[in-house]
Give the backbone structure.
Amino acid sequence: MKRRDLLKSAPVLASLPLLMSMNKTTFPFADISDIKHAKIQRFGDGRDWFFNRRYGMFVHWGLYSIPGWHEQHQWRGRVERKEYVKLAQQWNPVKFNPEQWLDLMEEAGMKYITITTKHHDGFCLWDTKQTTFNCLNTPYKKDAIGMLANACHKRKIPLCLYYSIADWNHPNYPNEGRHHELPPQPGDSPDWQKYMNFLKEQVRELCINYGEIHGFWWDMNVPQHKDPSINAMIRQLQPKAVINNRGFDEGDFGTPERDYDIAAAEAKGFDKPTEACQSVGMESWGYKKDEDYYTDRHLISSIDRYLARDANYLLNVGPTGEGEIPNEAEAILKRIGNWKKSVDESFLNIEPDTGLIQSPGILATKRNKTVYVHLNQLPAGNGIKLKPITVAPEKATLLNTGLPVEFAVNLCPSDHASQQPYLRLRNLPVDEFSNSVMVVKLEFDKSPEEIVKQFEKTDKELIK
């Protein structure tokens, strides 16, 4: 066997800016010089399920699913409160079957589920004693969260609960016409302390009445109120629950949303737990009757980009008012699931190594002597040069198909100045996978770290 060396470059990484979300919560990006060795620190307790599950289903479901336009129908559609609340008289999702949702979730390769218990409209999907604006006071007369919780517990699927701090229905919430708020409403009596008492009691209900909960997903803290005692209560009642950073303190993990967070999408890595979220629909997170959907390529590339950097991903669907997940959304999840199952080993028990390969649009993960090359951006041609790798692997496999990949280490005309041959992957089926992401498994006879050390030693001797 020929002697093998692996070139290691040492690019200097610029500090990455902190991104501020709409509700002013900071999002954590890694700002370290040796990013390729960065691995997000685990919690060291029951919350560590989060790092094993990685990919989850997000569900936005509520009264807004009946008109089927947007989950913020009341606000964006300028619907008066007295008209919007009449939708509760139509709430009767007779086709809701939590087992079918979970069947689809598992077929799609998802490992946990997060559902809206109360969105900004204030309608509650559980048997809350704090307001009559809930699913028990409808023709349906059933506790949807309880039904889903029972199904999750039976199948040992982690259940996480979304809760909106902004509330367009509660008379004590101070709707002042800020972003994601209604203007002041007739008959309201804004009182933040009373509203916080209401909120705390609702959170307590969710934490004590539905068995083990694995996460709490806050949203829209418009007043930017701080109160760490609320998350402390959740942790006391549900020690396995991970809490996001959109609530009353920084929480446990960051939440880059859709494609808004360009800095998060382009960051080399993350220095704390992160869960990106995206919806299959381009316009709405809730059900939209005439929705436009993202391409498989767009969603798969986004999922791959975050999972390859040791982050989690939450992909959303919006069930209809009858409780069914739309056929288009279901088909998208299944196609993504087929891709994920074929390449899943590149995300399991790996280390992200985004500094290993310098070719644009490529991410890398590694485990022992194996490197996984993620062709995250669609290659311009059927060949890829993997600078600065200068050695051939023992084996190269396209995980998407299980078939071998042709490779070579030889000098290309474009590298005439350095006279340095690099590892090339050749005759890749780029057109066949133009709506997906290819992942190539490279198996070497030494770990990347060992080869790098060997090269560095030889390089220093040559310099002398």
